[in-house]
Design a protein that fits this description.
Low-confidence stretches: 7-25, 212-222
Number of strands: 13
CATH topology of the largest domain: Immunoglobulin-like
Order of helices and strands: HEEEEEEEHEHEEEEEHH
CATH superfamily of the largest domain: Macroglobulin (MG2) domain
Structural class: alpha+beta
Number of helices: 5
Strand order of the largest sheet: 2-13-12-4-7-9
Shape: flat
Strand content: 35-45%
CATH architecture of the largest domain: Sandwich
Number of domains: 2
Distance between the termini: 53 Å
């Protein structure tokens, strides 16, 4: 399996390199994914996707995969009368549900903080909106709490400096999606940075969606809640009747 994957990668890179020669006059950066769709089935345990491409000329490559933004509720516990309870909270909006970064060098060696902030390159340079009901903690405390939570869940990651350029032109990196990855439309962004400025960029869509029987049940529950409720009640009654009959016979 590993040999087959290596041959696929080599063939893909060679094909990409040859096609890039014809397109390079228009754009010094060519990128593609090993798959543009991740299907989540009942037996889904995570997935790995390969992003590969070619560049022309000098520069650093920065790859960012972002999931759709969503609101997050972060709670902070305090000790009260010997018990730990949730007493404070903050709502964070604008946070990507998934964020993974890879680059040829550490970000602070590639560009200035202002440019990284402008494009949201790096977890520390993401822009969040925080509304907190807590006077004892700062916005940054809740921001760091969200980042720690996402990292523990495997949804945020930083692999700065792990991309190598083959022959100074071809590159590849592998992105990991855990079993709890949210569904939605993702973007794979690739930047070519030279002298602290972006000289080229490519964005490729990536779809993560549910598939199979689980997807059908989820769709019914979401769009036909009354029907889903009736079916659930009917199944519960049938299960109860079957159990009663079994005990009666016993």
């Amino acid at each position: 399996m590993g040999a087959r994957r290596g041959l696929f990668l080599l063939a893909a890179l060679l094909l990409l390199s040859s096609s890039a020669s014809a397109r390079i006059a228009a754009d010094p950066l060519v990128v593609d994914l090993s798959s543009h769709v991740v299907a989540i089935t009942s037996g889904f345990h995570g997935a790995n996707l390969l992003l590969f491409g070619a560049v022309e000329g000098d520069g650093d490559v920065v790859v960012v995969v972002r999931g759709p933004s969503q609101a997050e509720l972060i709670r902070r516990r305090d000790r009260l009368l010997g018990l730990w309870i949730n007493r404070h909270q903050a709502t964070i909006t604008g946070a990507p549900s998934y964020y993974q970064l890879a680059s040829t060098r550490p970000l602070d060696q590639i560009a200035r903080p202002a440019m990284l902030d402008r494009h949201g390159l790096g977890i520390d340079h993401l822009s969040f909106q925080i509304r907190r009901k807590d006077d004892q903690q700062t916005d940054d405390d809740y921001r760091q709490a969200l980042v720690r939570l996402k990292k523990r869940q495997g949804l945020y990651g930083d692999q700065s400096g792990n991309i190598g350029l083959l022959g100074g032109r071809l590159f590849r990196t592998e992105m990991t999606f855990p079993a709890n990855v949210p569904t939605g439309i993702y973007t794979a962004e690739v930047y070519l940075v030279k002298d602290g400025e972006i000289v080229s960029a490519q964005t490729t869509p990536l779809i993560i969606s549910k598939s199979g029987v689980g997807a059908e049940i989820f769709d019914i529950a979401l769009h036909h809640s009354a029907l889903y409720g009736l079916c659930a009640v009917a199944l519960a009654m049938a299960a109860g009747w079957i159990a009663a009959m079994a005990f009666r016979r016993g």
